[in-house]
Amino acid sequence: MTAPSTGTLRVHGATLHYDVRGQGPLLLLIPGGAGGAASFDGIADDLAAEYTVATYDPRGMSRSTLDDPEAEQRVAEHADDALRLLERLTPGEPARVFGVSSGAIVALHLLSAHPERVERVVAHEPPVVEVLPDAVEHRAFLAHVQETFRAEGLMPAMAVFAAGLRKDEAEAAAEPRREAESEIELPPQAAARREQTMANLPYFVGRIVPRFMSYTPDVQRLQTEALADRLVLAGGQDSRGELPYRPAAFLAERFGTDLVHFPGGHTGLTTHPAEFGALLRKVLCTA
To answer: For the chain, how far is it from start to end, CA to CA, in angstroms?
Structure first.
């Protein structure tokens, strides 16, 4: 793996840590979940053969620190962080953007609020559940996650959260335990990355999940011809029917566009990096 150049950027209420590698048009990768820039380690080097690839830790995650650790998190502020990174790295020029999960929510807001700065957005499974016809059920689910987090702690809340996202609730409920048991099998770099992800989980569950999954994108603006032509909605080949997949499928149908299926499920970026990166390169080049 090629060592990236690193930098920091002061934004409102936080200091962002970002990495840059490669050369060519700028491609900003926005991580989701409890991951940071390192979640793109499996694809960033290959993409850097064609792009200047910028990755970063979102505010409050990993190396990007908050001035006030108790500050409420807002999608619009996270999108403004992404905008300021674009202005730092490619001032005045539109960029390509890829976002996954909660990072895809940020990418959607960035496109709708600042379309002049975005040439193309690929949004992989943004869990904008408020667009779904059964949104009220998902509000109750998210409230249950928060209640469990407050009353019982992180891992019980994660089990509830995983069960609500998956089709197979029994399988999902076992996932946090199985991942913890498998940690000793990981190579050093992957183990360090997982340790950092685990350290980010309380912030993710307590601050990101409730605010991001209650966010409603500007659907009318996104479906205008000027913006819809720049937006690629994507889902995992193996996550059909799961909660994070459904908003992307719903919006693609509403917009009359194809839903691009990437290899793997919601975490296909990690489980199928070579195939995932190859398809992303193809989608980014498609006019």
So the answer is: 30
Q: Rounded to two decimals, what is the model's pTM?
A: 0.92
Q: State the number of CA atoms in the 13 A half-sphere of 175 facing the CB.
A: 17
Alpha-carbon distances, residue 99 vs 32, 150, 174, 251 (angstroms): 7, 29, 27, 16
What are the residues whose beta carbons fall under 8 Å from the beta carbon of 12, sequence distance 6 or more? 77, 80
For 271, the domain range is 5-132+214-285
Q: What is the pLDDT of residues 202-251, one digit of tens each?
A: 999 999 999 999 999 999 999 998 899 999 999 999 999 999 999 999 99
Angle at 72 between CA 69 and CA 76, to 5 degrees: 120
Is residue 160 domain-resident?
no
CATH of the domain at 267: 3.40.50.1820
